[in-house]
Every structure is written in structure tokens, then in C-alpha cells.
């Protein structure tokens, strides 16, 4: 059985599915143990609080399993507390409460950690299930299976649409911001540069020519693209208004202002000479951003892949994983960066580093699990206009999980042509996102030790968990 | 011809895997013991000097000196930490061996597949 065949993948997925189920059960068991320990501790503490209130309590004292006799509890302040490891200490009720409180703290951290791990496992299960469902319902398994000619045709059409959208966007900008700008008009023979000292009539003629050259379908598509572009811009502004962090707001506002100032003046200067330096300039800030990210986060196996994905998440609302949007977005951001230099990036990185210290690490595992599957869920773009700002920002930053943590992480915009795999199948609806988003904190370095009552037999083996990408708490 | 070799390699690999798992289990146990002992040590240090400490030996509780209890617990903690270090080293060694074995298994598998391929072509 070839490794690539869909049957093999299917069976492997099923095995993984079963494994995840088992891990979830073990984790649930552990969580229930911890919860019961915590409840017992709380009850005991409550009793200890009431005990010294009276000199003697009358009570029914149990005698064996089935009998009681009436008796008194005297010396109500003297209690013997089990410290652990077969050591007991005689102390007052209040001191005993203190001891129990410390134990309770340890157990509580264990409970929260177990809950987080459980949620992560559940998210993993969701992902596995959905991928299994897709494999069985889709007739063509994955679109990668199409023939070479078909895929070539698809790529060509996508590229041409992208160019059209970019040209249309550029023309729109030029019309808005007026003279002295060179227009890069897409003609039948490719691109031609004409000075925009042309009268508006001529421009319109060119546009019309363009449109006539295209099919009516393409025109409709273009119109739709422009709509989407406008929607995204609105979203950006909405996101930026509602962004929680002040620094980011300032930065983004600055960027916006700069963008509006610069666009008219400098677009032409950027376009031609920067055409060659385009890729370099784009890569350089991205590379720097990557470096900063690498400094922030621990080294890991799949760092490169994840860093390729993280910058798009971390852009202040400018995350365009829409392939058609990239040229325009990159232009804008490129200009902003060249204006402001590295300073803002460093500032943002410093600000984001603190938040990213905790959030970046956790955002990796969901990515890792998604990458292992070989797909990313890009939210369908029209659906991106969802209700709450946090979810909208998380939707624009995409990929499973790591949405909420991207809020404080947004550093200054870095254009990045990351490996964007558009897989239209998995639309991340709100419910899934909510389930996935809080499950982020998988990899938080676990300072608190697991409580003593952990039975190793009930937990999945460390290696199984590592294979599944989970880190065992140690 | 490669079959018995391959089977043997797979067996050793499986054995190594199982050893690794057992090792992991002991490691977990040791971790929980370490945590518990650390907690006890901390609590003992918080106590007043005149507190009475009992140690449970079987069904009976024997009174112990606080200082004595503290030293005992510290020694126990050191002992467990040494065990833990030993287990970790063993784990590392086992992992390396398992990797080697896995590489060997894959090599043999590839060779076998090749042989099968040529046999099919010949037939």
C-alpha cells in the first residue's frame, strides 16, 4: 500500500482517531480524580472552619460500616493533618486549614492544566473527525488529485485573476490620488507603463478596454473582488478600532495615516524600482520578523513552517490570506515599513514579545497539529464579517486556534507571502472556533507539579502523547 | 531472505519501544513522588519547633522528632532525585537505540520492497 494512497491515509486517520479517543478518556479520568480531590479538600476546610467554634460538638459517631452511636467531639482545636508521604502533624484547626489551602492550590493548578489539555485533545478530535468526514464524502478526496493540465489551467486562471485585481486596485488608487503617478495598465500584451498625466477620459477608456477584453464573468469576478477588498478594508478599520492594546492602535493608526499620505505620493516611485527589490524588501522585514519570532519562542521541530504562518496572524487586522489581495496589501505595508524603518517593528516586537512569550508558544501546537494534517483552515472570506470583534479578528488571522492570542500579538504589519494553502472545505464556524481558541495553552511551561494522587497508569503513555504532539507535564 | 532479518529487527525495535514505555511510566511515578516529597519537606519546614510529628508505620503512628523528620525527608528527596536522573539517562540511551533500530528496520523494509519489485518484474 503506497504511503500516498487515500486508503492508507484513511486508515492512518482512523487509527489516530481511536488514539485520540483513548487519550481523551484518560484525560477525563484524570480530571475527574483531580476534581474530586479538590472537592474533598474544600469540604474538609469548611468543617475545620466550623470545628473550633464550639467547645464540644454532639454528633453520631460511626462504628464500623453500619452503626453509629451518639458521642461528643471535644478538644475541637487539635487536629492531626496528613502532610503526605506517611507524615502527620498535630496542629490547630487554623494551621490545618493553611496546610490544606496550599494543597488546594496545587490541585487547582492541576485541574486547570488538565482541563486545558482536555480541550486541546477535543479540538484535535474535531479536526480528525472533520478530515475523516471529508475524505469519505468528497468524491475526489483532495483536489491535488486533479490532472496536470487541469491544475495548470487552474493556476493560470488564478494568476490572471490576481493580476487583474491588482491592476484594478492600483488603478483605483491612482484615480483617487491623482497626478504624477505611473499607471501600470494591463493590456493584452502584458503590462505597459503610461504616465497618469493622461486625462481621465483616457483612463476610463483604458479601463473600458480592459473590461472589454475580459469576459463578462471576469468582470463580475473583478467587481466581487473589489467588494471583498472594500469589505476587508472595513474590517481592518473595525478591527483596528476594537483592538485591545493601545500600542497597536497607535501603530496601526500611524500606519493608516502614513498610508493615506504616502499612497498618492510614492506609489509610482515604489512600483518600478521596487519591482526588483520587491521580493527582497518583502522578504527582509519578514525575515527580521521571523528572527524576532525565533528569539521569542523556543526552538522546535516545525518552527520554520509555523513561522511562515505566524506573521500573517500577527498583522494588525491586515491579515490577507486571500491570495488576490496580496499584491495590494504588500505594497501598502511595504511603504509603511520603509517610511518608519525598523523602529516600530522593534517596539511592537518588544511589546508583543511579552505577550507572545506566553501566547506564541501556545499558538504553535494547534498550528502544528493542523500542519501535520497538511491543511490549514482559511475562513471563507465573506463569512469573515462575523459578529464579535474578537472572533472577526481571529477569523482574519485564521488557522485553527491561536485566534484569541493573536490580539495582543499583533505587531506592525509585515507583508509575507507565506505558504497559503487555501482549502475551502473546512469553514471554521464560530462554535468550532470557540472550542478551539481557548484550548491554546497547551505548551505553557508547567511550573506547578502534578498532585500526588496522579496515577500514572491512567494517563496515556508519554510517547503516545508526544507522537500526537502533546507535551506531557513534567 | 531478508524476511527473517527484517522480522528480527522489528522484534528488537518493538522490545525497545516497550522498554521506553516502561521507562516513561517509572519516570511519571518518580515525578509524582518528587512532588509529594517536596511538599512534605516544605510543610515540615513551616512548622514550629515544638510541633509533634508522627510517622505512620503500618497501622501505627510513631512520634518523631521534627528535626529528625526533616532530615529524613530531605534524604529521601535526594534519593528520589538521583533515581530520576538515572531514569532520564536510561531514557536518552534507549531513545538513541530505538532510533538506530528504526533506521535499520526501514532500510531492511526498503530492501525487501526492492526485491519484491524485481521479483515481480522478472515474473
Please characterize this protein's 3D structure:
The complex is a heterodimer of chains A (474) and B (123). With 474 residues, chain A is mainly α. Chain A contains 13 helices and six strands. Helices cover 62% and strands 8% of the residues of chain A. Chain B is mainly alpha-helical and 123 residues long. Chain B has helices at 2-46, 66-122; strands at residues 52-57, 60-64. The two termini of chain B are 18 Å apart. The relative contact order of chain B is 0.15. The chains are: A mainly alpha (474), B mainly alpha (123).
Strand content of chain A: 5-15%
CATH C-level category of the domain at 6-133 in chain A: Mainly Alpha
User: Could you name the ranges of chain B where pLDDT drops below 50 across 5 or more consecutive residues?
Assistant: none
Strand order of the largest sheet of chain A: 1-2
Cα-to-Cα separation, first versus last residue of chain B: 18 Å
State Rg of chain A: 30 Å
Total DSSP helices of chain A: 13
N-C termini distance of chain A: 39 Å
Decide which structural class fits the backbone of chain B. Answer: mainly alpha
Order of helices and strands of chain B: HEEH
Q: What is the overall shape of chain B?
A: rod-shaped
Radius of gyration of chain B: 26 Å
Q: Percent range for helical residues of chain B?
A: over 70%
Largest interface: A-B, 27 and 32 residues
Order of strands across the biggest sheet of chain B? Answer: 1-2
The number of distinct β-strands of chain B equals: 2
Q: Give me the secondary-structure category of chain A.
A: mainly alpha
Protein name (chain B): Prefoldin subunit 6
Family (chain B): Belongs to the prefoldin subunit beta family.
Keywords (chain B): Chaperone
Main location (chain A): nucleus
Question: What are its keywords?
Answer:
A: 474 residues, mainly alpha, two-stranded antiparallel sheet, 13 helices, 6 strands, elongated, B: mainly alpha, two-stranded antiparallel ribbon, 2 strands, phosphatase inhibitor activity (chain A)
Amino acid at each position: 500500500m503506497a504511503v500516498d494512497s487515500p486508503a492508507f491515509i484513511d486508515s492512518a486517520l482512523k487509527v489516530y482517531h481511536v488514539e485520540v479517543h483513548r487519550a481523551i478518556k484518560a484525560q477525563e479520568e484524570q480530571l475527574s480524580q483531580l476534581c474530586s480531590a479538590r472537592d474533598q479538600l474544600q469540604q474538609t476546610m469548611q468543617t475545620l472552619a466550623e470545628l473550633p467554634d464550639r467547645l464540644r460538638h454532639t454528633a453520631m459517631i460511626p462504628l464500623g460500616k453500619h452503626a453509629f452511636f451518639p458521642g461528643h467531639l471535644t478538644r475541637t482545636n487539635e487536629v492531626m493533618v496528613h502532610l503526605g508521604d506517611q507524615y502527620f502533624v498535630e496542629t490547630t484547626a487554623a494551621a490545618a486549614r493553611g496546610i490544606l489551602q496550599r494543597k488546594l492550590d496545587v490541585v487547582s493548578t492541576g485541574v486547570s492544566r488538565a482541563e486545558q489539555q482536555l480541550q486541546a485533545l477535543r479540538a484535535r478530535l474535531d479536526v480528525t473527525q472533520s478530515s475523516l468526514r471529508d475524505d469519505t464524502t468528497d468524491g475526489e478526496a483532495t483536489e491535488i488529485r486533479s490532472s496536470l493540465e487541469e491544475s495548470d489551467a487552474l493556476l493560470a486562471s488564478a494568476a490572471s485573476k490576481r493580476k487583474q485585481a491588482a491592476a484594478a486596485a492600483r488603478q483605483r488608487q491612482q484615480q483617487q490620488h491623482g497626478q504624477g503617478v505611473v499607471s501600470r495598465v494591463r493590456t493584452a500584451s502584458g503590462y505597459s507603463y503610461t504616465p497618469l498625466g493622461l486625462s481621465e477620459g483616457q483612463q476610463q477608456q483604458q479601463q473600458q478596454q480592459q473590461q472589454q477584453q475580459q469576459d463578462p464573468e471576469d468582470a463580475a469576478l473583478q467587481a466581487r473582488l473589489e467588494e471583498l477588498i472594500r469589505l476587508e478594508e472595513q474590517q481592518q478599520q473595525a478591527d483596528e478600532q476594537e483592538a485591545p492594546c493601545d500600542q497597536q492602535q497607535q501603530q496601526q493608526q500611524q500606519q493608516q495615516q502614513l498610508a493615506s499620505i504616502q499612497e498618492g505620493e510614492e506609489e509610482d516611485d515604489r512600483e518600478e524600482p521596487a519591482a526588483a527589490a520587491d521580493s527582497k524588501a518583502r522578504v527582509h522585514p519578514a525575515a527580521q520578523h521571523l528572527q524576532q519570532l525565533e528569539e521569542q519562542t523556543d526552538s522546535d521541530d516545525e518552527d520554520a513552517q509555523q513561522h511562515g504562518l505566524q506573521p500573517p496572524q500577527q498583522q494588525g487586522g491586515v491579515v490577507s490570506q486571500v491570495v488576490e489581495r496580496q499584491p495590494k496589501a504588500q505594497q501598502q505595508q511595504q511603504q509603511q515599513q520603509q517610511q518608519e524603518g525598523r523602529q516600530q517593528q522593534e517596539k511592537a516586537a518588544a511589546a508583543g514579545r511579552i505577550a507572545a512569550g506566553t501566547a506564541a508558544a501556545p499558538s504553535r501546537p494547534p498550528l502544528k497539529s493542523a500542519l501535520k494534517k497538511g491543511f490549514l483552515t482559511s475562513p471563507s472570506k465573506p463569512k469573515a464579517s462575523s459578529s464579535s470583534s474578537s472572533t472577526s479578528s481571529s477569523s482574519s488571522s485564521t488557522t485553527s486556534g491561536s485566534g484569541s492570542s493573536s490580539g495582543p500579538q499583533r505587531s506592525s504589519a509585515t507583508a509575507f507571502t507565506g505558504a497559503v494553502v487555501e482549502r475551502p472545505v473546512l469553514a471554521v464556524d464560530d462554535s468550532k472556533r470557540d472550542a478551539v481558541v481557548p484550548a491554546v495553552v497547551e505548551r505553557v511551561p508547567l511550573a506547578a507539579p502534578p498532585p500526588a494522587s496522579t496515577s500514572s497508569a491512567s494517563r496515556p503513555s508519554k510517547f503516545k502523547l508526544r507522537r500526537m504532539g502533546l507535551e506531557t507535564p513534567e | 531472505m531478508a524476511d527473517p532479518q527484517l522480522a528480527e529487527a522489528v522484534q528488537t525495535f518493538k522490545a525497545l519501544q516497550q522498554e521506553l514505555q516502561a521507562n516513561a511510566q517509572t519516570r511519571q511515578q518518580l515525578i509524582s513522588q518528587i512532588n509529594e516529597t517536596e511538599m512534605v519537606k516544605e510543610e515540615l519546614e513551616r512548622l514550629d519547633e515544638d510541633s509533634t510529628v508522627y510517622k505512620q508505620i503500618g497501622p501505627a503512628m510513631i512520634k518523631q522528632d521534627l528535626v529528625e523528620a526533616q532530615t529524613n525527608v530531605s534524604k529521601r528527596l535526594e534519593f528520589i532525585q538521583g533515581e530520576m536522573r538515572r531514569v532520564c539517562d536510561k531514557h536518552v540511551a534507549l531513545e538513541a537505540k530505538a532510533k538506530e533500530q528504526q533506521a535499520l528496520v526501514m532500510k531492511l523494509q526498503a530492501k525487501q520492497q526492492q526485491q519484491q519489485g524485481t521479483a515481480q518484474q522478472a515474473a
